[in-house]
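Fold this complex.
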Amino acid sequence: MSLINSQICLKSYPEHLPTPENFALKQSTVDELNEGEVLCKTLFLSLDPYMRSQIAGRHITAPIKPGDLMFGETVSEVIETRSTQYSKGDVVRCMGGWQSYSIHNANELSAPILHPQPSYALSILGMPGLTAYAGLIWQAQPKRGEVVVIPAATGGVGATAGQLAKQAGCKVVGIVGSEEKRQYAINELGYDECINRNAEVVAERLDELCPDGINIYFDLVGGELLHQVSTRLAIGARVILCGLVAEYNNKERMQGPAPALWIKSRATVFGLVVYDFEPRRQEFINACLPLVEHGELKMREDITLGIENAPYAFAKLMQGNNHGKTLVKVVV
Amino acid sequence: MSLINSQICLKSYPEHLPTPENFALKQSTVDELNEGEVLCKTLFLSLDPYMRSQIAGRHITAPIKPGDLMFGETVSEVIETRSTQYSKGDVVRCMGGWQSYSIHNANELSAPILHPQPSYALSILGMPGLTAYAGLIWQAQPKRGEVVVIPAATGGVGATAGQLAKQAGCKVVGIVGSEEKRQYAINELGYDECINRNAEVVAERLDELCPDGINIYFDLVGGELLHQVSTRLAIGARVILCGLVAEYNNKERMQGPAPALWIKSRATVFGLVVYDFEPRRQEFINACLPLVEHGELKMREDITLGIENAPYAFAKLMQGNNHGKTLVKVVV
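Structure:
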């Protein structure tokens, strides 16, 4: 068997927003397997904002340098195996990267995925879903009637957190970048209110919509919005620090809100890294799978076809022009 | 009875550090009591850094304006009563303010203080002690072997937190402003290590003393040190945001550390306001009184004589030239 592997590597560091020109397509022959290894064909690749942080060398995982294959989580099908742990045809979750084939030691693969829509293992039932669940349910512990504010409200993490907050009986206010997303947040995801940050003054709208303050802020963006929300926290607020999209494209890290704001509101602020919650993934799936099956937890997936188009999809994601969880469907 | 009350009022806003000239002494006759009221003679007045924040109008309690009597907690003796709740000679804790006599509705006084050293109700067994206990024990929950860093390590809150952290089996590193305080922290309070920030490079010393990172930071100062510590947190660190001495004398609030630092360390950050823990004061006293009685929890008190000298004592406190908990002993 002599399969051709298409790989997307970093070509150059982006100055600010990444463009497709920052990436290069390489092709090579797939290696032979060693004992204990498994050959996987990529079905879906997950594209996520944290990858911009990896390129900047600031993510807690390894940095990515020009010439390196781009990292990424995939749902992949086992097509050849020299391990007794997996059979041909098993569909698994693995760190396949931005490529059409990947070889793994069998220990690096997840258990076979059994639910009928395998892409969900990268979205609502995958890392974005687990991130939302860990931050909102395990860390913030929402109570009925509390006010929850979620930026990037229709993205993979935000959409899940918003729906979970509604399930918990909260008033949920989203923040998005377009009227189309605002409509989607309210009409499809069930947000009580949603602010279009490109058409409205966010601080004023927060004052109107949260007159008694904000109880929970699920921060996915950092930057100026984190300051604005921090001045509007209710007593006993919880802030989940999870993402920093506002600064991923910058060379410098931004400073945080004045500590006095968090003292004043007696806030509890949690730094969230989803990898810490990997041991509790099954607990999360057990809680959310029934909701997904009953249509009570939804996820729009923004699917681009072809690994060669991953750089375009990533640039679109980093411009905020995605609609839901960004995935690449690999066709070979 | 026609008693003369000496009162210290704010005269003018300090530009930066307060000086005695920012305050004025007023004298007046003590009023007659109404039904349900109690007349108290001040024994000890507590002076605390948060008062600088009240003068700046930024504290969560009411602001203090020129002409206003300075607020403050006191240990006072009941010398006249029109309430059945208290008897002459009772020693109580109350918000007596910077004055030699104060009149209160009986409901505003604490239960009579029974332990033999009443000034302790303003120091190790009072608000500074409760602050330290709430932040370190209830919020941060120290575990044996963890590394705890405490700035203002010999002040009222810091000294208590440091000793409690030692009791919990932690490695405790203090930061102080003089060699004399450094010696005191190590030799009397039992700190494992102590950094003199005016003689050593704090960041370098933290690297040497905490090679595996800092597990708990009890922040009493804010400012640049909070940034420096935040870059050195261990995974799962806890940060107690309690005081902002570094900025109390400034007109502007400083920004906080980059949120990325707290994400990276999966920190939990707690805003601490001691008033929230008032319902648990007895629990704290029950835990600490035996330690105080057995000499396992100590507090040096820096006592100035005479209410007229309170402005000098406060200026000295805000310059960091106090040695232990600052109190004024009122003599009439």
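The mean pLDDT of chain A is 94.
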